[in-house]
Amino acid sequence: MPPSSHVRVYAFLMPAMNRLSHSPDWQALTDAAPLPQHWAYGQTMERLGARVGRCLLQGRAVQFVERRGLRLVHRAPADLGLAPLARHGGITLAITQARGPGMVPLITPRFHAEWLLDAPLPALRAAMRPTWRRALDQAGARVVEDPGALSAVLAAASGVMKGRGVKALPPAFANAWAGGVLVLRAGPSARMTGGAVFLIHGQGATYHAAWASDRGRAEGAPRALLWQAALILRARGVTRLDLGAFDAASPGLAGFKLGSGAMPVSLGPTALVLPF
Questions:
Q1: Hey, what CATH topology would domain 112-266 get?
Q2: What are phi and psi of 6, to 5 degrees?
Q3: What integer pLDDT is reported at residue 23 of this predicted model?
Q4: CA torsion through residues 227, 231, 232, 238, sign
Q5: How far is CA 220 from CA 53, 74, 161, 191, 217, in A?
Q6: Where exactly are the structural domains of the chain?
Q7: For 259-270, what is each residue's pLDDT tens digit?
Q8: Contact in structure between 241 and 230 (CB atoms under 8 Å)
Q9: Number of C-alpha atoms within 13 angstroms, CB side, residue 68?
Q10: Is residue 263 within a helix (H) or strand (E), and if so which, with residue range?
Q11: Concatenated DSSP letters for 216-228?
């Protein structure tokens, strides 16, 4: 898929074979990439006014956001050298597992919980922690897919995040999302007791926002929502579900995400990229 008119393509970083009138198929090149490297993320950020860059390094797509002389690269392939980006004007910062010359770590690694959904259903359930599986079996929340609940779920989830002092992507991001969106609701539409939003990007999906009322939590809505999302996404060809960040400061959240059977994945440190 060609980039929009506001997405900057760094042709000087591309092999000669790609400096043709036809743009690379960015959607195909990033189909298996994590959210920040998927073409839909770049399209969405551009819709929200950000300056987005794309290039090919060693035949592989790299996407980044540019802000006032900074080039921010999030989750580029771990085995790909980013030095060519740093040879262009400005400062390049990258969150990546890449190592080697020219990579100067600045901030310690972050971890996400990633749930692989391509196993048989019995194996997915068997991989859950026993307490998590029992709580899921006992959940009484009724979960349905409801695209019309998007605004309500985003607003409720945003309110919870603000109350906790946690920064999160604004509702505008999901409303502008250029990929697929899965919206689930627990409880009747007039008295929603919980909801969740997942962004779909090729073979992957990312947990974006979720909320549950006191009643919803009592009925096990968070686990019911997550399990129903896994079933629906799996049926639609999604093989990896990114449940987002966790850390030791929030043991309850970490236990909820990892209890599902998701595994911890290091994103690597935030590093300064030098031009060599």
A1: Aminopeptidase (3.40.630)
A2: -105, 0
A3: 63
A4: positive
A5: 42, 34, 20, 16, 5
A6: 7-98, 112-266
A7: 999 999 999 999
A8: yes
A9: 0
A10: strand 263-273
A11: HHHTTHHHHHHHH
